[in-house]
Write a structure and sequence with these properties.
alpha+beta; 5-stranded antiparallel beta sheet; 4-stranded antiparallel beta sheet; SH3 type barrels; 12 helices; extended; about 20% strand; Arc Repressor Mutant, subunit A
């Protein structure tokens, strides 16, 4: 199994610390802080002592690294050092595949640097890029010549992500002023935030509304304000995010039972859905007439209807009748607009 790329960065930081003449014999805590600063640039404890212990073991013993670092613990100085003071892993390079993987990961993450929730990691990404020489002009030109990343536009409502994330983590109720599409004014909601979910470049908050005794979904782009309160809460034991969306395509969750859905489509659409399934329950089988049958076990949500309409005329809703009628009504409404 390939070594985790961030682990490789930590190994190089540890190597640098072991070679330091100004601060010899670093302790595990010294190594932990150095790795954390190199990766995250903050004092938050995102790296544990146990992680450093595993790193030291791996550097000594993992054959796939291509070296066996002679790291020893010095009881006199109560710290770590190389048995050979001239030893270093610095000259051992990452493979081409490893460099490519790290570069792709960093460039992908940088697409979200303008989202407030992730802005705090901008410095960390810059540190990683600097240490791995990913930001050199030559490498950038080479990458951009053959790979075009999709630019992530500023997501509406993303300014509320940080506050809501903290409220979820601290189990604090939130006061929202939320205006639905087409509504004249925003309405207040006091909710217990449970989950942040992103779907098709939009963020949503899943929260328990005590006054309604129900779990509601709020699009963050429709929030006029959000304020964390001092009220604490406990997530109801009935709420499980995996089960909550288990039968949904998209963000909609209905108070209904999932249905067995049958769709017929042409070969091109079938191959597309095989490479990018729309739901874990998806099953595809060939039909005698050359088309393909798609079976799903899902809720009859707006997103499901939208998915079918987006693939028309290559796909047909066969069952259940309610779904077929929804699609036919939508197609008829669209036809009336284009007469």
């Amino acid at each position: 199994m390939p070594v985790n790329k961030f682990a490789l960065i930590r190994y190089r930081v540890i190597d640098r610390c072991l070679l330091s003449r100004s601060h010899p014999y670093p302790t595990k805590e010294d190594l932990r802080r150095a790795c954390e600063e190199a990766l995250y640039g903050s004092a938050d404890e995102r790296i544990s002592i146990s992680t450093i212990e595993k790193d030291l073991w791996a550097m000594r013993n993992e054959s796939e690294l291509g070296y066996y670092a002679p790291i020893r613990y010095d009881p006199l100085h109560r710290g770590y050092a190389y048995e050979d003071p001239e030893y270093s892993i610095h000259d051992i390079s990452l493979s081409a595949d490893e460099w490519d993987a790290v570069q792709f990961a960093a460039r992908t993450l940088l697409q979200f640097r303008d989202v407030p929730l992730f802005a705090q990691f901008d410095q960390a990404l810059g540190k990683i890029a600097d240490r791995l020489s990913l930001a050199s002009q030559e490498n950038e030109r080479e990458l951009e010549a053959v790979v075009q990343f999709e630019a992530a536009s500023q997501i509406g409502g993303s300014e509320h992500l940080q506050l809501l994330f903290q409220a979820i983590r601290e189990r604090r109720a939130v006061m929202l002023f939320y205006r639905k599409f087409g509504a004249a004014e925003a309405k207040p909601y006091r909710v217990h935030p449970y989950l942040l979910k992103e779907y098709r470049n939009r963020w949503y908050l899943i929260a328990w509304a005590p006054e309604r005794e129900d779990v509601l979904t709020f699009g963050l782009d429709r929030l006029e304000s959000a304020e964390r309160t001092h009220e604490s809460f406990q997530i109801t034991s009935e709420f499980d995010p995996d089960r909550f969306f288990a039968h949904s395509i998209g963000i909609t969750e209905l108070d209904a039972e999932p249905r067995h859905v049958v769709l017929h489509c042409d070969a091109v659409q079938a191959h597309y859905l095989q490479t990018q399934p729309v739901h874990p329950s998806q099953r595809i089988a060939p039909l005698p007439d050359g088309r393909f049958e798609i079976r799903l076990y899902v809720l009859l949500t707006y997103e499901l209807v939208h998915l079918i309409l987006g693939a028309a005329p290559a796909i047909e809703a066969v069952e259940p009748p309610e779904l077929r009628n929804q699609v036919l009504q939508a197609l008829e409404a669209a036809r009336s607009l284009h007469r």
